[in-house]
Design goal:
3-stranded antiparallel sheet, 40% helix, 538 residues, globular, 11% strand, TIM Barrel
């Protein structure tokens, strides 16, 4: 009942509607109401402001909250004066998130991201990191950095950008948000991961490159029982828009959890994309039904590659038990079947809703997981054949550079591109009341997100972030992004000591896991010899 009432009369329009009503009353009966002559002028100005807010296309907040939305921008205007108050009263994580948003907003809008008064971080704080620069800077021709994805069995390799849109499903994001992301990807020549919600009509609207993520619910390629359907898979994967196929094993925000989209939220459009019934619960099981052993998973990868006529096929996972990851690598060696790519999703990655314990304490953080995956592939002699992507709180050029140094070939970002769309981290993603129209299916709220305007910001954010990466490379004297190594990065480990990142991480030699002296390797590889390709456990 309240939802229907809100569609007829959105409460967020109250300030604007009140301005109109008061304008009418002040004009018709100012003497009766005891108002002085200047009140009609005030209400007229507020009414005109509200009308302008509803018509403009650059600020979702003002389209959804005419008149009253200006209070937010007024608070931003005086933010430098009140910043110290917030720094003292909020948690340590909040100012960092605010700094992230500020960086993205500047780049997305094409504004200067330069800041006065020097470093804004505490350089004496534990964990502070920096890049050592060169006395002989390099000069690069551009920032359209790419890497070819496609192994020995791939006949349609894809040159992926170094920075792409991470997995976010239609249903989690609004139709307008999906369209803006895809149009921005089309404009900038980078990839847009569909998320496990499959390919919707909104992904197809603008023709941007897609990475089709297939989760345990097999949305978009499932039969009536929820199992994988080769026929449905072929229908979607043969689209020229689909450049790569990504099997989702787990996501960093809630690895091993699964999920349910309640039937009340399964609209006709969502049902169409996912291949489910309108109004029925849409279940993502915690595990896949198409395979239960490492060997079976390799066979599934090969099946998808064959059905796709040779497009790159890989998988995404948040690292949990290291021995389960080792079992997958051993299966690659035993079968000769290799994924074309692996996306490592850090446990710090986000989602619309996840149990607090999962968000904070389940899964391996990105830096540790990325290095483990890189080292394992190097030690197994497979690193040159398999590309590695990284995702999980990657927003800035520095984040990308550090991930590349740790072993990534490219990076994906979800929250960065959400900020570019206008997300203000209201943390109402699960409620349907997103104030900027990014994570809602409410048709009146998502109208605030104007696709062409936000697509331009998505494009700008991608371009300016890679431009910043180019500047970091030049200052470091490098020629390619993959010249970054852990030796270029420093980290403060105490008040009196800083170390190279290379001194804080393990590094394996090529083929080290194939030799007999595995016991001499770092402790994390102690379970290598115990794993079996016949099962994920030990």
């Amino acid at each position: 009942m309240l939802d229907k009432l809100n569609q007829i009369y959105p409460v967020r329009y109250t300030a604007f509607i009140a301005s109109v009503v008061l304008l009418v009353f002040s004009l018709l009966g100012s003497s009766v109401m005891g108002m002085s002559g200047w009140w009609p002028t005030v209400f007229l100005l507020l009414t005109l402001v509200g009308l302008r807010d509803l018509q403009q296309t650059h600020h979702s907040i003002l389209r959804n909250y005419p008149v009253i939305g200006h209070l937010r921008f007024m608070s931003e205007y005086i933010r430098p004066e009140i910043r110290q108050y917030f720094l003292e009263s909020e948690t340590e994580a909040a100012p960092f998130s605010r700094a992230q948003r500020s960086l993205v907003y500047s780049r997305a809008k094409g504004d200067s991201d330069k800041r006065p008064f020097g470093t804004q971080l505490d350089v004496r704080a534990m964990g502070y990191e920096w890049i050592n620069h060169s006395m002989v800077p390099s000069q690069l021709a551009g920032h359209d950095f790419r890497v070819k994805v496609g192994g020995k069995d791939c006949t349609h390799p894809y040159d992926i950008s170094l920075f792409n849109v991470s997995a976010m499903s239609f249903g989690a994001l609004s139709a307008n948000a999906i369209q803006a992301l895809n149009l921005g990807a089309k404009m900038g020549g980078f990839a847009h991961d569909t998320g496990e919600g499959s390919i919707s009509r909104h992904h197809r609207a603008h023709g941007g490159d897609l990475i089709w993520e297939i989760g345990s619910g097999y949305f978009g390629c499932r039969d009536e029982h929820g199992h994988f359907s080769p026929e449905r898979f072929v229908e979607n994967v043969r689209s020229p828009q689909v450049k790569m196929v990504e099997i989702k094993l787990s996501q960093g925000a809630k690895p091993g959890h699964g999920g349910v989209l309640p039937g009340a939220k399964v609209t006709e459009e969502i049902a169409e994309a996912r291949g489910v019934m309108v109004g029925q619960d849409c279940v993502s099981p915690a595990a896949h039904s198409s395979f239960s052993t490492p060997l079976e998973m390799m066979a599934f990868i090969q099946q998808l590659r064959t059905l796709s006529e040779g497009k790159p096929v890989g998988f995404k996972l948040c690292i949990g038990h290291p021995w389960e990851w080792f079992a997958l690598v051993k299966a690659m060696l035993e079968t000769g079947i290799q994924p074309d790519f692996i996306v490592v999703d850090g446990a710090e990655g986000g989602t619309g809703a996840a149990p607090l314990e999962f968000s904070d304490h389940m899964g391996m953080p990105l830096q540790d997981a990325l290095r483990l995956v890189h080292n394992t592939l190097v030690g197994a002699g497979l690193r040159d054949a398999i590309r590695v992507g990284a995702s999980g709180k990657i927003v800035s050029a520095f984040d990308i550079a550090r991930a590349l140094a740790l072993g990534a070939d490219w990076c994906n970002s979800a929250r960065g591109f959400m900020f570019a769309l206008g997300c203000i981290q209201a943390q109402t993603c699960h409620s349907g009341n997103c104030p900027t129209g990014v994570t809602t299916q409410d048709p009146t709220r998502q109208m605030a997100l104007v696709v062409p305007s936000k697509a331009e910001r998505v494009h700008n954010f991608h371009s300016h972030t890679l431009e910043a990466l180019q500047e970091l490379m030049e200052a470091s004297g490098l020629q390619t992004p993959h010249d970054f190594t852990p030796r270029h990065f420093m980290r403060r480990v105490s008040e009196t000591q800083t170390l190279h990142l290379s001194d804080l991480i393990d590094t394996l030699e090529t083929g080290a896991l194939l030799k007999d002296n595995v016991s001499a390797l770092p402790a994390v590889f102690s379970d290598w010899t115990l794993t079996s390709t016949q099962r994920f456990g030990i």
